[in-house]
């Protein structure tokens, strides 16, 4: 028997390793798997980012059931027949609502609003969460075409004066409650124009200030959106859409109640606008720029702080002007008295 002495592989022979093929395209994954196990687990901002990555994902991420679930999860108040009917008429349905109502409104519209552009009705969808748990959800419809509404101070109340809403918010009876609410309370106030199919979220998401009333002991958490609504130098150059949540009741160590949730519009002179003036401001919000989605709380507090500073400076300028006028009036009065005295002496 003979054996070959030739090595199994010569030194000048290349060795080829065969690897199993790896799928590199998202299109090779079945759409049902993407929708059932991936896309439906994303939040709104992540879904928007995913839709920008490819044509296939953009199509899958545009499915209405995904956006319906996201909107109902963030804003339970939108799951009502009236609002569902309005959303069904939007160009992209629930995706349109998310893109208009999730970001902070940051800038004015290009053209000033016209009187005939005012909505004839407003719908408020409000949701309040404490430590990510829903504690308040309500929808209120407001008629805006009557002369009484247009001439009266603008105010939307989500609770009747005698109504209250129980909460798990502890009443410590100290500033600890205020600090707690500043970090753990969140609010969304979506305002819809059902005629022109527009929406805007007027909340800063987190409170811009939380204070305890010195007399009643109630805690007032303020949320705000600041809009540029008027001419430079005017009182309405910057206007605050302020939302106040009033919490009170309950013995110390017990749980507080939501006693009031209201929206008003205030200019830099501290004047609350009437219905007609407020509708013009709200038009700015409806048609304004949207942005700062990932930094809503920070940007909201920053814009509110700037509004307070502008309000303070405007008050100081007015006081100085009034002081100068008072001095002028006093000087004029003294001159008149001196003149009258000289007149009598000369007689």
Automatic annotation (TrEMBL):
This protein's record includes keyword rRNA-binding: no
Entry keywords, A to Z: Membrane, Transmembrane, Transmembrane helix
Pfam families the UniProt entry points to: F-box (PF00646)
TM spans (from-to): 324-346
Coiled-coil region(s): none
Annotated Gene3D superfamilies: 1.20.1280.50
SUPFAM superfamilies xrefs: F-box domain
Name of the protein described by the UniProt record: F-box domain-containing protein
Classification via PANTHER family: F-BOX PROTEIN-RELATED (PTHR33736), OS11G0155100 PROTEIN (PTHR33736:SF13)
Superkingdom to which the source organism belongs: Eukaryota
Organism lineage string: Eukaryota, Viridiplantae, Streptophyta, Embryophyta, Tracheophyta
Domain F-box residues, every copy: 31-68
């Amino acid at each position: 028997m003979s054996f070959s002495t030739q090595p199994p592989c010569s030194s000048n022979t290349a060795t080829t390793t065969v690897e199993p093929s790896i799928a590199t395209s998202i299109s090779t994954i079945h759409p049902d798997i993407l929708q059932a196990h991936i896309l439906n687990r994303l939040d709104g901002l992540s879904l928007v980012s995913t839709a920008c990555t490819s044509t296939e994902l953009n199509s899958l991420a545009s499915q209405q059931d995904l956006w319906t679930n996201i909107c109902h999860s963030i804003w339970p108040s939108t799951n009502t027949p009236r609002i569902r009917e309005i959303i069904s008429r939007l160009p992209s349905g629930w995706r349109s609502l998310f893109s208009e109502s999730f970001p902070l409104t940051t800038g004015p519209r290009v053209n000033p609003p016209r009187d005939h552009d005012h909505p004839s009705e407003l719908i408020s969808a409000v949701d309040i969460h404490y430590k990510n748990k829903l504690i308040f959800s309500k929808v209120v419809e407001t008629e805006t075409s009557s002369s009484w509404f247009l001439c009266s101070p603008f105010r939307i109340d989500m609770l009747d004066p005698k109504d209250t809403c129980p909460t798990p918010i502890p009443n410590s009876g100290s500033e600890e409650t205020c600090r707690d609410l500043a970090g753990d309370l969140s609010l969304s106030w979506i305002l819809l124009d059902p005629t022109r199919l527009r929406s805007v979220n007027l909340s800063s998401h987190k409170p811009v200030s939380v204070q305890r009333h010195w007399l009643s002991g109630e805690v007032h958490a303020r949320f705000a959106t600041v809009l540029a609504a008027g001419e430079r130098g005017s009182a309405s150059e910057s206007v605050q859409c302020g939302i106040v949540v009033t919490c009170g009741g309950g013995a110390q160590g017990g749980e507080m109640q939501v006693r009031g949730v209201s929206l008003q519009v205030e200019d830099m002179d501290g004047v609350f606008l009437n219905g007609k003036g407020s509708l013009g401001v709200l038009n700015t919000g409806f048609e304004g720029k949207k942005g700062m989605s990932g930094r809503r709380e920070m940007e909201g507090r920053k814009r509110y702080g700037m509004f307070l500073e502008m309000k303070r400076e405007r008050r100081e300028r007015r006081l100085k002007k009034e002081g100068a006028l008072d001095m002028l009036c006093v000087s004029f009065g003294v001159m008149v008295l001196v003149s009258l005295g000289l007149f009598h002496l000369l007689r």
